[in-house]
Amino acid sequence: MVATHAHDDHTAGVGDIYAAAKAAKFVTSAAFTSSEFFAAVAADASIEDQLVPSVRHEYKTVLDEVMRRGRAGAPHLLRASEQKVLLEVAATGSAPGFKVTALSPSDEAQNRSVRAIAEGSAREDMRVRLAAPDPNEYTVALWVEVADVALLLGGDLLNGPTACGWRRVHESHTPERRARLIKVAHHGSQSSHWGPVWMDFLEPDVLAVLTPFRLGAERSVPKQRDIDRIVKASGRAFITARPQKPTPPKDVKETRALLQTIATNVRERDGSPGHVQARMCPEETVWRVGAASPAYELK
Ligand SMILES: [Zn+2]
Most exposed residue of 62, 156, 238, 291, measured as fewest CB within 10 angstroms of its CB? Predict the structure, then answer.
């Protein structure tokens, strides 16, 4: 189980899922934010205030469960970093072999994360202030190989900065074969689209799958220009929901008002996440794609 980076849209619920998945190893980035770092210790109140409570809660739940599992089967918690093989299983009989390799974070991303925690924790007047680096920088991107099919799972990894991100992945990773599926990084955002990776790591007819990030018109991704770019660079592309939050119709608004005192977060179906499933049998070369509403194919 891999928590790619410390953002709600990637970690919400990981604590409960890990607790239920009794035999799972938990993988987190070797470059970590303050919310992850201080989840491991009893921080004082001034630090506590500055942590992202939801993220801290998820990592705390995971770390408590790791402690509960004790020595048998340890280590339960793995730290992903550039070119580390997280899982490798040889083929047996008719079952194909598979291998999962972390592409990031780079050494430099780890240096930057340690520096950010050190820089932030002591300031003048004895006040303690935490630096707030972008967790996307520390994302674990994954290269997955099943038999002779490769997949690239991009998390929210950014293009840089120097010696970090996709720029660094392109230097450090030499795939034996090109990927036939990409989980597009960072919701299709331009800041995570590194041309050379698309050019050199992916099949020209790669299946691209992405999720939107919806937070107001300004910050929502993908934008139309991102969609155009992804459609052009891939064979087919699917998204799990529309990039913009739907405006609720009149009846949904009325129901919401009616239920206000007993229910929160009442919304229409389009406001729920869709699901994209891609399947391929060993002897096949074309993906069979299922898109459960509101997921749809980008054109
Ligand atoms: Zn995200």
Answer: 291
Residue 245 has pLDDT above 90, yes or no: no
Each residue's pLDDT tens digit, 224-242: 999 999 999 999 999 999 9
Q: How remote is the CA of residue 32 from the centroid of ligand 1, in Å?
A: 16
Measure 111 CA to ligand 1 centroid, in angstroms: 23
Q: How far apart are the CA of 134 and the centre of ligand 1, in A?
A: 11
* Cα 251 to ligand 1 centre (Å): 31
Q: How far is the CA of 76 from the centre of ligand 1 (A)?
A: 25
In this structure, the chain runs to a length of 299
Residues with Cβ within 5 Å of ion ligand 1?
9, 156
112-156 tens-digit pLDDT = 998 887 776 665 555 466 777 788 999 999 999 999 999 999 999
User: 188: CA distance to ligand 1 center in Å?
Assistant: 10
List Cα–Cα distances, 135 to 7, 52, 55, 132, 231, in angstroms: 7, 12, 11, 9, 27
Judge whether 66 and 79 are in contact, CB under 8 Å: no
pLDDT of 8: 87
